[in-house]
Structure formats: C-alpha cells, structure tokens
Amino acid sequence: GNSVTQMEGPVTLSEEAFLTINCTYTATGYPSLFWYVQYPGEGLQLLLKATKADDKGSNKGFEATYRKETTSFHLEKGSVQVSDSAVYFCALSGGNAGKSTFGDGTTLTVKP
Amino acid sequence: DTGVSQDPRHKITKRGQNVTFRCDPISEHNRLYWYRQTLGQGPEFLTYFQNEAQLEKSRLLSDRFSAERPKGSFSTLEIQRTEQGDSAMYLCASSKQPGNQETQYFGPGTRLLVL
C-alpha cells in the first residue's frame, strides 16, 4: 500500500535559518504529493502541492519538488520566521479515490 | 466560500456513550472524507463519500462507527459505545471531482475525549 515517511522532529531553528524537512514516499502509479501545515489548535491547511514528476510546488516562500527517481518531496524554505512554527505533514493522493496518506508530521519551532 | 465546518469542536463523553459529529463541506464539493488523527500521528483515512454514496471504508472503521451523507451535502459520523481508544481528533475534508480532485480542504476538526 501507499506510505509516507517524514524526517523525525522536532526541529528547532533560529529565525532566518534555512529549513529542510525530508519526505519520501511509496506508492503505486503516479500519486500527487502535498505538504500541509497545522498551526496549534487549527485544522490542516494545504501549503503546496505537485501533481507530476519534476513539478515544483511553492507557496509563502516554501518549495518542494516532486522527485520520482528518489521518490521524495522535501520541503524547503530559505529563511524561516517565528510565524512558521507549526506541524508540517507530507501526504500523497493516488488513483481515482483521492484519499490521502499522511506522514506522522514534523514539528518546527522557530526561535527569534 | 466559507470553508469546511465541523461541529462540535470539542466533545467529552463517558465510555459507553454514543456521540455524533457533523461536517459541512465546501458547497459544490461532491467528495467528503473523514480522517482520524491521534497525538503525534498524521491523519488516518476512515471513509469517504461521493455525493451521497459511501464508496470506501477503512478497516479502521469498526462496526461501532457509522457515517452518512443523506443528501450529498453535510455528513455525520456516529460512534456507538465509545471506548477510551476512540479519543482522537476527527477531521473532515472535502474536494471537487472531477477537476482538482486531489486537493482536499480540511475542517478544524472535532476533538473527542472519552473518559
């Protein structure tokens, strides 16, 4: 079946540091890939997505590139802010059903 | 577009009681999903509807769980004879298919605590 593996957290960075959160996946076919963010006490918000190999999703300074050869979708940001502190989930959606498979999340804390 | 809404946001109940949650999807979204999220884990798929038809159920959905979407709009998730292991965040999501079918929009969730 489908699965998503995220780098374990928590991750603590200083403001303006570079962020990478690793995500690799296992899936049949050609899934779509997503990063969601969850702020304390809130639901999941879609951060970015990519629907085919070599696509780059980007939003709010975050980027991730769909790498089919390495089955990866790593999240990056060049300069994090305190307001980026949240839990980040990598997910995939494959086939016609559209249901998503999530990683376990990575908690990011950015200190001023 | 007011987003996906869920009610209640929090529910505390005693073991053995029945609980029901409601989800209102984004209007015109024909797909509706239920997920469960426990502390430190990602959401796990429970079931989904296309319009009023329930098309798939996870094996996580025991016979104590039932979901409905009677008119293809809002959905309810009922848990009968709750157990402490049912304590979790229950998330609802909706999407529009065909079109941008892979993008699901999530509600704020209902946090259930079973004492």
Describe this structure in words.
The complex is a heterodimer of chains A (112) and B (115). Chain A contains no helices and 12 strands. By secondary structure, chain A is mostly beta strands. In chain A, a hairpin with a 2-residue loop joins strand 7 and strand 8. The model of chain A has no long low-confidence stretch (mean pLDDT 92). Chain B is built from no helices and 11 strands. Chain B is mainly β and 115 residues long. The interface between A and B is medium-sized, with 24 and 26 residues.
**Quaternary structure:** heterodimer
Helix content of chain B: under 10%
Which geometry of chain B do the CA atoms define? Answer: globular
What is the makeup of the main sheet of chain B?
7 strands, mixed
- Secondary structure tally: strands of chain B: 11
Name the structural class of chain B. mainly beta
Q: Enumerate how many helices of chain B there are, as a single number.
A: 0
Classify the helix fraction of chain A into a percent range.
under 10%
Tell me the Rg of chain B in angstroms.
13 Å
Query: What kind of sheet is the major sheet of chain A?
Result: 6 strands, mixed
- The dominant shape of chain A is globular
Helix/strand-derived category of chain A reads mainly beta
> How many distinct beta strands of chain A?
12
Biggest chain contact: A-B, 24 and 26 residues
N-to-C SSE string of chain A, H for helix and E for strand: EEEEEEEEEEEE
Distance from first to last alpha carbon of chain B:
36 Å
Show the helix and strand layout.
The complex is a heterodimer of chains A (112) and B (115).
Chain A: E1 3-6, E2 11-14, E3 19-21, E4 23-26, E5 32-38, E6 44-50, E7 56-59, E8 62-65, E9 75-77, E10 86-93, E11 100-102, E12 106-111
Parallel strand pairs in A: 2-12
Antiparallel strand pairs in A: 1-4, 3-9, 5-6, 5-10, 7-8, 8-9, 10-11, 10-12
Chain B: E1 5-7, E2 10-13, E3 19-24, E4 31-37, E5 44-50, E6 53-57, E7 65-68, E8 75-79, E9 88-95, E10 105-106, E11 110-114
Parallel strand pairs in B: 2-11
Antiparallel strand pairs in B: 1-3, 3-8, 4-5, 4-9, 5-6, 7-8, 9-10, 9-11
